[in-house]
Structures are given as C-alpha cells and as structure tokens.
Amino acid sequence: MSFFNDVYGDRELSARAKIVCLYLHDRANGEGESWYAIGTIAADLALSRSTVKRALSDLVRLGRVEIQPRYRENGGQTSNLYRLRK
C-alpha cells in the first residue's frame, strides 16, 4: 500500500492530521525528515498555528511522526525536526 493510500485510509487520523502529514511527507528529505517551523506550515496550509500543533500532537500520539527539538548555538530553540514513521 502506498504512503498516500495509507494516510487517506487511516480512520484514526483527523482531516487536519492528514493534511499536515502529507505536507511533511511532501517536504521531507530522502530520510523522511523535515524541519519547517509551525508558522510556515500553518501559512502554507492556511491553518492556524493551534490547528497545526493539534495535528502534530495527533500524529505523534498515533506513531506517525517523531518530533525532535532543535537548538541554535546560543541555546535558543529553532524549528523542530519532524521524522515520518511507517
């Protein structure tokens, strides 16, 4: 089954989670990783930041995405690293 069919057919995923998952897949490198800021994802998908955060929370809870915080040299947090699973 293709990644897309798997996501579309997953009845546990909300519409918001599906669109964010497909966005991350579309923007991922060859290892399934992307690092777009929540604000960028929200703007690109015409969603609120809160909706994107809820979608990411759903994806993590269901084991589809792993989130790894990233930090600047000065210790400030930058965008997260999102790794697609499955």
- The neighbouring-strand order within the major sheet is 1-3-2
| CATH uppermost class | Mainly Alpha
**Compute the gyration radius: what is it?**
13 Å
Low-confidence stretches: none
Taken from the alpha-carbon principal axes, the silhouette is: globular
Look at the helices and sheets and give the structural class.
Answer: mainly alpha
Please provide the count of β strands: 3
Share in helix: 40-55%
Number of alpha- plus pi-helical segments: 4
- Approximate strand percentage: 5-15%
Would you list the SSEs in sequence order as H and E?
Answer: HHEHHEE
Number of separate structural domains: 1
End-to-end distance, in Å? 11 Å
Mean pLDDT: 94
Largest sheet, described in full? 3 strands, antiparallel
Q: Under CATH, the topology is which?
A: Arc Repressor Mutant, subunit A
Key structural traits:
three-stranded antiparallel sheet; Arc Repressor Mutant, subunit A; globular; 3 strands; 86 residues; mainly alpha; 12% strand
List the SSEs and their pairings:
Blueprint lengths: L2 H7 L5 H13 L5 E2 L3 H8 L3 H13 L3 E4 L12 E4 L2
Antiparallel strand pairs: 1-3, 2-3
